[in-house]
Amino acid sequence: MFTGDDVFWTAFRNSLVYLVICLIMQIGGALLVANLLTALNRGRELVKTLYLLPAVISTVAISFLFQRIYSENPEGLLNQVLGFLGLHDLARPWLSDIKTVLVAVSLPEGWRFMGLYMVILYAALIAVPQELEEAARLDGASRWKVFTKVRFPYIRPVWITTIIMAATYTLRGFDIPFLLTNGGPGQSSELLTTYMYKQAFTGTDYGYASAVSVFIVVECLVAVALVIGLSGRRARG
User: Fold this and answer.
1) What is the pTM for the complete model shown?
2) What is the DSSP letter of 153?
3) Cβ pair 227, 160 in contact under 8 A
């Protein structure tokens, strides 16, 4: 697996890119929306429900939805929007272009769970004692300072747990990429999970598929160790 299989290493690199894109959307986007929600006085429950909705929708339905969004013929929503903005040159078959397919299959996964992690982080943010924030404001702290020096340090344990949840789930992500592209074109969107599935159920090489699955477990454990180690070092600093 480590020395004689180029597809394995391609799938490994794709999985890392997939992880980075999903984490930026899921954790970064969730923190941003959760922070904005704390300042929203009306319609807060509606916004939370709308953001959480994708997490309870079937992955098959999400895959079909994004197939239509990315479609070139008939023209999908994304290409229509680009045409409306006068950016016709940017329109393309997003799931068939090797330059865009990996990002295209990562975005639905990131969008799907952003609302779930937003609710978790929002619950942590509203638990921050108001006295701490009021004291910081009385000392002349800006909103950014209040967030970075008061809110974020207070929710750091929840933040770390959320990152671990998102990272391990993303590394095990399979259904949406498999339904959208089945790892294609070529191996440009092949992930370790889709490669493991093909080895087991297409190539009937169950031993090799088991080896890949063990590597995925080890990969998740390493990701957890890195998150905990880096967060602990930052906290000590």
Assistant:
1) 0.91
2) H
3) yes
